[in-house]
Design goal:
mainly alpha; globular; about 150 residues
């Protein structure tokens, strides 16, 4: 008797293997440093709240990093990062909105519309930074034929 596997299962296994390889490229210390760099003006003094917010930011940063890495094959074939980024606006917008809503849930943003707008721009910059990190590191892995 043979074991039957579907194409969908094989793709998922290959994707998981690639994501594990990509996650070896970043460190938790760098992730935490970047969270503090981007969001230090918005973090309040409550230590428990800061820990929970940092955890959510780390999760979203990893997702953005893996999203960029998954699109890096297009960069390897000659497309620029800006052109490749137009392929995933829905996923990127979802990550930005998730991060923004996460901060709103924890109540770490002021009540002013100006503050909300500037924070949304900060979320966009944060997601863009990690998307590009994943994209360029993934592209490098493709060039080195480590994919």
């Amino acid at each position: 008797m043979t074991v039957l596997t579907t194409l969908k299962e094989k793709r998922r296994e290959k994707q998981m293997k690639y994501e594990r390889k990509m996650l070896r490229e970043i460190s938790l210390d760098i992730l935490k440093t970047k969270v503090k760099d981007f969001f230090s003006p918005y973090l309040k003094k409550n230590r428990q709240q800061i820990g929970a917010i940092e955890e959510g930011c780390l999760d979203v940063a990893i997702e953005a990093y893996l999203l960029g890495a998954s699109y890096s094959k297009f960069g390897y074939y000659g497309e620029s990062a800006e052109k490749v980024k137009t392929r995933c606006p829905v996923e990127e917008k979802y990550l930005i909105d998730t991060l923004y809503d996460y901060f709103l849930y924890w109540g770490s943003i002021g009540d002013s519309d100006h503050v909300h707008e500037s924070f949304y721009v900060t979320c966009e910059a944060f997601i863009d930074y990690w998307w590009r990190e994943g994209f360029f590191k993934g592209e490098k892995r493709y060039r080195m034929r480590l994919h």
